[in-house]
Amino acid sequence: MSTDYDSSDERYELFIGGKPTPSESGEQIPVTDPSTSKPFETVAAGSSADIDRALKSAREAFSDWRGIKPVDRGRVLQRMANRMHAEKKELAELLTRENGKPISQSKTGIEVGARYFEYYAGTADKVQGETIPLGSEYLDYTLREPLGVTGHIVPWNFPVSLFARTVAPALATGNAVVVKPAEQTPLTAVELGRLLHDAGVPAGAVNVVPGYGIEAGAALSEHEGVDGVAFTGSVPTGREVAAAAARTLTPVHIEAGGKNPIVVYPDADLERAIDQTMISIFTRNAGQVCSAGDGLLLHEDIHDEFCERLVSRVGKLTVGAGLEDPDVGALVSETQYEKVTGYIDVGIEEVGEPLCGGTASDRSSSDGYFVKPTIFDGVERDMRIAQEEIFGPILSVLTFGDEQEALEIANETDYGLVAGIFTRNLNRAHRFARDVVAGQVFINEWFAGGVETSFGGYRQSGFGREKGMEALRTFTTTKNVCANIDSMSSVDRR
Length: 494
Ligand code: NAD
Prior knowledge:
Blueprint: E1 14-16, E2 19-21, E3 28-33, E4 38-44, H1 48-67, H2 70-86, H3 88-99, H4 103-121, E5 138-146, E6 149-153, H5 161-172, E7 176-180, H6 187-199, E8 206-208, H7 213-222, E9 228-232, H8 235-247, E10 252-255, E11 261-264, H9 270-283, E12 295-299, H10 303-314, H11 334-351, E13 374-376, H12 384-387, E14 394-400, H13 403-411, E15 418-422, H14 426-435, E16 440-443, E17 462-463, H15 470-474, E18 476-484, H16 490-493
Parallel strand pairs: 6-7, 6-9, 7-8, 9-10, 11-12, 11-15, 12-14, 13-14, 15-16
Antiparallel strand pairs: 1-2, 3-4, 5-18, 10-17
Bound molecules: nicotinamide-adenine-dinucleotide (NAD).
C-alpha cells in the first residue's frame, strides 16, 4: 500500500473484475490530506464507461457467487474480517490521511468495518423463507433471493465502516456489488475491494469504481444493469439518486442527513449527559456524523450549570492532525471547511458570539481544515442553526420548560434520524421514544448500538433500514411458490 504521493508512484486504479484497472479516460483525481490541504495520492477517475464495465463484470460473476453455498459465502466474509484486522494499522493510517480523522478513530473505523463482515458472515446461512398455510391441497413457500447486482454509493465521513455496512449484507445474501466511494476518500475503498478478492470473493463479484458523484455516481444510480441501489449521503443527492432509480423502477434505499436533538432534564446524571454530548458532536469525527447530536435541548432549570460545565470541558479538547491523535481532527475538505465556517457566521448573525470556539483553529501554519469546537447558546427554534444540518463541530443550545415543548422542538426539523433523552424518569423516557420522529432513540446514551441495531431515517433522513437483520431484507426480494398438490392425476398417485 503506498501512502506517500509521488508522481512516479504506482497510482490507485479502479478495482474491476478482480484486478486493478485503469479508467477508460485515463484521468486521475487528486486525494488530499485534510491536515495539510496537500494532495498525497491520486486515484483513477471512473466515468459512466467504467461503471458500465464494472456492472457487466458483476453480472457475469453474480451466478458464481450466488451459487456458492451460503455457509461458504459466510466463511469468505469471515476471512475478510480477519484480513481487515491483520491490516488494521496500514488501513487506519490511509483512512486518516484521506479523511483527516484522529488515528485512534480510524482504527475503530477498521474494527467496525471488520465487525460488519463478521456479523453478516454469521447470517449468510440464516436467510430463510416461510411456509404459508393455504389448506391441505396446497404447498406454499417463499424463497428469499438476492436482488442481483447492487450499486453502493458511499459518503466520505466513514469510508470504511459505511462501505462495509451495505456491502457485507449484500454479499452475504448472494448479490454481486459495484461500489462508488466518495471522491474525497476513495483509497481505503479500493483496498477493501482488493481484500475482499483476496478473502475469496470471485473475480467480478466486488468492483470498486472511484469517481465524481455527478459522473460515476449518477451513472450507477440510473443504469439499467443495476438491480438495487444503496445510497448514503446528503438529502439533495439522495433525491437525485431516488429520481434516477425511479426511471428504471430500481429498488433504492436512502440514508441521508439528520438534525438530531439531545434532550436533558434536571433529574439526569448530568456528568454522563455532558460526556455523551461531547462524543455526539465534538469528539467523534469532528461532528461530521449523520447522527451527531447537534441540537442540545436543556431544561431551563439546568441550562446555566450545564453550559458552564460543558464549555469548561470543551476548552480542554485538542484540535490537530489526525496522525497525532488529537480529540478533534481536520474537516475532510475545503468545501466542508467553507460550509462549516459559513454556519459559524450564520450563528454569529443569529445569536451573537458563541460560548466557545467560533473560529478556525490556531494551527494557522499547517493549512489544514481545522475548526474549533463551537457552542451557540440562546438559539431559537426557527433559526437556521437550529434547523439545518451543519455537519461539523458546532452545537446549538436551546431551552425548554416542559415535556410538551421539548417534544415539539425535537420534532419540528425536516429530519428524523436519531434523537436522545437524558433523564432518570423512565416513563418520561419511553414517552419520548414513542412520540419522537426518529429512526433510532437513545436513552441516557448516544451512539449506542453497533452493527446489530437497525438504522435509518424518517422524513428527509431517508427510507429503508440498514444494519442488523433488517439489512438482509433490504438486499433480498421474496419469491412465493404456490403448488396445488391435490391436482395430480391418478397416474401420478401410483
Ligand atoms: P453527498 O451526497 O455529497 O455524497 C455522497 C455520495 O454520493 C458520494 O459518493 C458522492 O460522490 C455521490 N454523489 C454525489 N452526487 C451524486 C449524483 N448526482 N448521483 C449519484 N451519486 C452522487 O454527501 P457527502 O457530503 O459525501 O456526505 C455527507 C452527507 O451524508 C451528510 O448529509 C450526512 O448526514 C449523510 N450521511 C448519512 C448517513 C446515514 O446513514 N443516514 C451516514 C453518513 C452520512
